[in-house]
Every structure is written in structure tokens, then in C-alpha cells.
């Protein structure tokens, strides 16, 4: 069972006729939100903002004149209330506008901007982008492999034909060697074992041995 937490509401600095974003949550939805005069004993609502179906962010048009001192109240479904810090409405910094007409709300219930939905959407977009980059990389690599595989082999192209994928290249790729009339002789010469040439000491030892045999026979 989820632990119940009291609701909260946060109000930013306010400038007349500009949008302000009220952050509210916890408690139990839906939420009733309205401004009151700061320090008011009876907490009379100064404006009928539509009921918010879920926690999130409410974009509210500051339709109070400059100098108004207001506090926001949030009441959840079980009747628990919370208050924001008081805010004094300021004139617009760029235009100097100090007065603003009141906003007319419809009777339909509003819905706060779902912060979790926004975060989830951003994360989903990041995942889609990463998957797109991965697909592009794999597609490009496979396309490059197909291009290389379609090229005609050269005498030095390695082939994988032995057990455990032993690479054989060069003159071992006999099926790719361009044979000529002298190719067979060159291969025989390459495969022939080196000629044995006895050392000078071995020849001298044999000569001395032969001389001793001749002397013994005579």
C-alpha cells in the first residue's frame, strides 16, 4: 500500500499578464487550486481555476495587477490543503505593463502538465535516436562487407578454408595463382630441400681416413 504524502504547491515570481508555471503534487488527485490574498484569515478564493485531474505543472496567466500580494492554495481529494509562498505581482520588465484583464475559465476540468509523461517522452526520444544510430552503423557495416565480398579476388586475397578458419594467403592460394610456362619449375625449386654441402673439415677427415685404409692395405 502506497504511503500517503501531503500535497504541495510551488509558485514562481509573478509578472502581470505573463504566464507562470505552478508545480503541485503528492496527496490524492484531483486537485483544486486557487489564489487567495496573502494573510487572509478566511482564505477566500480570488479566482476559479479549473480542477486539475492529476499532479504536474499548471500554466497560469497572471491576471492580477502589479502590486497584488497573493498566495496559492491546493486542496486534494481527501481535503488536505497546502499553501505556496506569498508572491507580489510585478510589472512586466520589458513593456512596463502594470494592469491586466481577468481570465475567463470554462467549466471543464483542467489537467496539469504531467511531468512524468514529459520525462518519459524525452527518454523515449533519446532511445529512438540511439536505435536509429545503431541501425545506421550496422547497415553501413553490412553494406561495406557486401561490397568487399563482391569484388574479384586478387592473388594476395586471403581465403578462409582450413579448419578453425586458418588463413592462407600468397602462393598457397594456388587456385588464384596466374600460372605460366615456368610456374611449375619455380614451384619445384621452391619446394626442393636445400642442397647438402659438407664442410671442409668433413672432407679432410674423409681424405685422411682413406689414406690410412690404403696404407693398411699396402
From TrEMBL:
User: Taxonomically, which superkingdom?
Assistant: Eukaryota
User: According to the UniProt entry, which residue ranges have a biased composition of type Basic and acidic residues?
Assistant: 201-211
Q: Which UniProt keywords apply?
A: Membrane, Transmembrane, Transmembrane helix
Question: What organism is this sequence from?
Answer: Leucosporidium creatinivorum
Q: Where is this region: Disordered?
A: 190-218
Please give the name of this protein.
Answer: Uncharacterized protein
- Give the stretches traversing the membrane: 115-138
Amino acid at each position: 500500500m502506497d504511503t500517503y504524502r501531503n500535497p504541495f504547491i510551488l509558485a514562481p515570481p509573478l509578472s502581470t499578464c505573463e504566464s507562470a508555471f505552478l508545480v503541485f503534487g503528492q496527496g490524492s488527485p484531483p486537485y483544486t487550486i486557487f489564489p487567495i490574498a496573502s494573510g487572509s484569515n478566511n482564505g477566500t478564493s480570488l479566482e476559479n481555476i479549473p480542477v486539475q485531474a492529476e499532479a504536474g505543472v499548471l500554466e497560469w496567466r497572471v491576471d492580477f495587477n502589479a502590486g497584488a500580494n497573493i498566495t496559492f492554495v491546493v486542496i486534494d481529494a481527501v481535503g488536505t490543503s497546502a499553501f505556496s509562498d506569498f508572491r507580489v505581482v510585478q510589472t512586466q520588465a520589458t513593456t512596463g505593463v502594470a494592469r491586466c484583464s481577468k481570465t475567463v475559465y470554462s467549466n471543464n476540468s483542467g489537467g496539469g502538465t504531467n511531468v512524468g509523461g514529459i520525462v518519459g517522452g524525452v527518454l523515449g526520444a533519446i532511445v529512438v535516436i540511439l536505435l536509429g544510430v545503431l541501425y545506421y552503423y550496422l547497415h553501413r557495416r553490412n553494406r561495406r562487407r557486401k561490397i568487399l565480398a563482391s569484388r574479384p579476388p586478387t592473388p594476395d586475397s586471403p581465403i578462409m578454408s582450413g579448419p578453425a578458419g586458418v588463413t592462407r594467403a600468397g602462393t598457397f592460394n594456388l587456385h588464384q595463382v596466374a600460372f605460366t610456362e615456368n610456374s611449375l619449375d619455380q614451384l619445384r625449386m621452391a619446394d626442393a630441400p636445400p642442397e647438402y654441402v659438407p664442410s671442409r673439415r668433413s672432407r679432410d677427415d674423409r681424405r685422411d681416413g682413406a689414406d690410412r685404409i690404403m696404407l693398411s692395405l699396402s
